[in-house]
């Protein structure tokens, strides 16, 4: 329930006389952060976005990005001003069609002051006109924008949106997206979801993409470049769109041999995790020198390096497992990263088991043995790794070991019921590590605090017996 500030009788009367709604007198600024424990300035308070409409134009030769973001949101408090997270140059902001004052404050904050306060519970529409050269814009000491010889790409975690659209940049505020991007004829623009249409005029081709299910800001992606695009339809009727840079060198074959198996892998994962949550699928491989991959919603980003040793279906299994674990069920706080990475890593073990290349238990035993007790690996707690260790091997490998220990402790029937039930219970929502422990206890009917403390929240190598979880 909202807390009303007490007004002295005289002030209330003055408000009535001036016909100012009581809410306006009460209005306060929205917080510049959403309250994340690792990243206090990420996201914002006071409003909730339901839809982003991005109408952009990108010129690869100059790396200039320009356009307009139309943001549909609801005020969550009487709001005198509010922040967006953004690092490019803004030329105009309209709130409800009226010019609003704005100011860049901090390295990725845009402070917007509407002419009149917004009323709690009311919808409002925001228009932001902007431009920039994202590869040259440094925020928090870096840029996530990857410039390639023929284009540019936004794909990083947790920071990605700052360099291409203004947002409430935290997974707690998910929204739907229309991304429309004009690029020079002969160049393509790839984003999330379905390709609704393309059109060409005056030397520019416009690609209109739609992501129709709630999507976290870091899972929105844009890739401009010259791509070979393959399209297909799944047995269930969903469109599959994959894109490969024309410039992948000798990684091209292995990239295609991996990413073209997307539909098959999604079908198999659906049998383990429950129905696929989105209405499109695919993947894209731009010509970037980086080595990470990212579970951008419906269409993961893969670096060519991931395929340097040959086909890598395991990587595709990982990014596609994130569609359930991370994308549909998103974390509440970046501290909860294990609910993404532990599960996507465990999916790779399940795939290996299914492919006859070693069972999950064999891989768990191998992983457990491969880190000696004095390895710093064991000092990182997957359940609270710290921002600097958010993508540490411990979050992935020890994170998967935690799930094998759970499986051994409660048995296959409950374990697999939990994988499906969890993704159903929190579909399109947010959840924490604590929520998972509670859910697993509910389904299994067993106390699990000690098991999860051992695997997720205690530095040091658990005893071998605990790896089998027989004694817990
Ligand atoms: N979530 C990604 C994955 O595990 C990891 C992204 C790491 N990001 C980075 N910039 N290294 O697939
Ligand atoms: Zn991952």
Automatic annotation (TrEMBL):
Positions of transmembrane segments: none
InterPro entries referenced in this protein's UniProt entry, alphabetically: Aminopeptidase_N-like_N, Aminopeptidase_N-like_N_sf, Peptidase_M1, Peptidase_M1_aminopeptidases, Peptidase_M1_dom, Peptidase_M4/M1_CTD_sf
Family: Belongs to the peptidase M1 family.
Organism for this UniProt entry: Streptomyces luomodiensis
Cofactor(s) it depends on: Zn(2+)
Annotated EC: 3.4.11.2
Keywords from the named record: Hydrolase, Metal-binding, Metalloprotease, Protease, Signal, Zinc
Name the record gives this protein: Aminopeptidase N
Domain Peptidase M1 membrane alanine aminopeptidase: 311-455
Signal peptide positions on this chain: 1-24
Domain Aminopeptidase N-like N-terminal: 50-219
